[in-house]
Amino acid sequence: MQPDSTKRRGRRKADGGPGADAAAARPGTRSAEAQPARVPGETQRRILACARIEFAEKGFAGARTESIVRAAGVNPNLLYHYFGSKERLFVAVMEEVYGDVRSHHGDLELEELSPEEAIRRLTEATFDLFVASDDVIRLLSTENIHHAEHIRDSQRIAHLYDPLLALIERQLVRGREQGVFRAEVDAQELFITITGLSYFYLSNRHTLGVILRTDLSARTRRERRRRHIVDVVLTYLRHGDDGARRLPR
Fold first, then answer.
1. If we measure between CA atoms, which residue out of 221, 167, 176 comes closest to residue 194?
2. How far apart are CA 87 and CA 107, in angstroms?
3. CB within 8 A of 18, min separation 6: which ones?
């Protein structure tokens, strides 16, 4: 008869516990022959991907770690081994979400454009991201319900937007120097405006659609809204408080 400790080790390997990855990595074992070797971090990425879906669909309060590990096909112990808690897992998801948003902005490409074209592209890219990533809207809405209490201490998120705000400021300065932008624009306010014009429309499109009796998710409506947002932002930048159009010197 096997000792209880031996039985427990066997069960952990069989159900995907900490010993499973090690057994799979040893050449000549049945596990290694039955499945391909996993690249480093694969388990964490799988948990993170399933957690992102769960949190987006059910919010932080409604999400269940049991559902996440079931979808990821891993032992529950692995979730806590890699992430520590449900809260820290949610923060990891939000850090990934904010990272995705930032990578979509394309800072290097914007740097090479004229001020007007750079702001146009940034505005379009922001709208396009929200259209393509509905889970981003839901996850941001979830964290706002909780007053950002989970991400507040994330150093990664805290400084993630500093380069973008600096880029916007440089484009505003260039625009003023070229005589095409008004002089009193704040980079943070412009960033909030660009984000808000896209976010509000897409996060409220279902309720607005009922009120306005129209399908705001339809492609033609989305394209019209995209053009409208760009026009609103650029018109604001091109005109001073007196309404005068800014023209290149």
1. 167
2. 31
3. 12, 75, 77, 78, 81
CA distance 129 to 123: 10
**Token pair for residue 208?**
């607005």
Token pair for residue 118? Answer: 């750079």
Alpha carbon distances (Å) from 199 to 29, 113, 178: 52, 25, 31
Indicate the average pLDDT of the chain: 84
- Residue 174 sits at φ, ψ, to 5 deg, of -60, -40
H or E stretch at 99: helix 86-105
Cβ contacts of 49 within 8 Å, gap of 6 or more: 72
In tens, the pLDDT along 143-166 reads 999 999 999 999 899 899 999 999
Q: Is the pLDDT of residue 228 over 80?
A: yes
Pull the structure tokens for residue 11.
Answer: 């069960």
Record the pTM.
Answer: 0.76
Cα 67 to Cα 73: distance, rounded to the nearest angstrom: 10
CA nearest neighbour of 41 among 85, 102, 83, 1: 83
32 or 203, which is more confident: 203
What is the per-residue pLDDT for 55?
97
At 161, is the secondary structure helix, strand, or coil?
A: coil
DSSP string, 192-225: HHHHHHHHHHHHSHHHHHHHHTS-TTSHHHHHHH
239 forms bridges with which residues in the sheet? 245
| Cα 97 to Cα 139: distance, rounded to the nearest angstrom | 8
pLDDT of residue 78 exceeding 70? yes
Torsion over CA of 18, 22, 28 and 30, rounded to 10 degrees? 20
